[in-house]
Amino acid sequence: MRNTILLFTIICIAFLAGANLFAQNHENVELVGRIYNYWDSALEVAVDGDLAYVATGVSGLRIVDISNPENSREVGYCDTPGFAHDMAVSGDLAFVADYLEGLRVIDVSDPETPREVGYCDTPGYAHGVAVSGDLAFVADYTEGLRVIDVSDPENPREVGFCDTPGRAIDVAVSGDLAFVADEWAGLRVLDVSDPENPRVIGGYQGAGHACGVAVSGNLAFVAVGPNGGFRVIDVSDPEHP
């Protein structure tokens, strides 16, 4: 019995070591640096030049200098009143989906001293955000997609909304289309050419429990959970993805 247990232990160790080695060689991935500053969570990251902007839950927005990837360092932060769940960066502004506290607009022109300059409450739970031009699109959980005019960053205001059949968790925008990860309702495609009247024009239920989305060209890339993996969806015909 003792020999059997020993043999089983050796096999498990060998398997794990081999799997780890295979993964490193096969994927050609290597950790070159890390940063840990007692943040609540690291939920989303956006990169602009040598700076990474991280949504960190109750510890707000954190700005990290990644010019030396092996020695990344935090250079500034801005506490948000709620739970920083997602963020998008455009020019000198960061737009934070702050869960219970709606959309927060933060001036990051000086990365060492970012400061909030405006906000717009949303009726639901601000889960995800994308920015295109003077518009911010907020995935507002049970309250669908909210469209917010941010042309005046100090006074952002909602100009339109569209209910979605599921729970809007994330959003990506490409041209006149918004792609919403709508949880159990899968991927929803919305026409936002008229920001005051966005409307659902297509969907893909087979995306399952959609919790994240990015778009490039005619493809939507959807993160599906729990245990749903990663889906690639052809959206060249947005009414029938």
Say how many strands there are. Answer: 19
Count of DSSP H/I helices: 1
The N- to C-terminal Cα distance equals: 57 Å
**Average pLDDT over all residues:** 89
Sheet with the most strands: spatial strand order: 1-2-3-4
Query: What is the general shape?
Result: globular
Q: What integer value in Å does the Rg equal?
A: 21 Å
**Helix/strand/pairing class, anyone?**
mainly beta
Low-confidence stretches: 1-24
- Characterize the largest beta sheet: strand count, sense, and whether it forms a barrel: 4 strands, antiparallel
Brief summary:
This protein is mainly β and 241 residues long. The chain is built from one helix and 19 strands. The radius of gyration is 21 Å and the shape is globular.
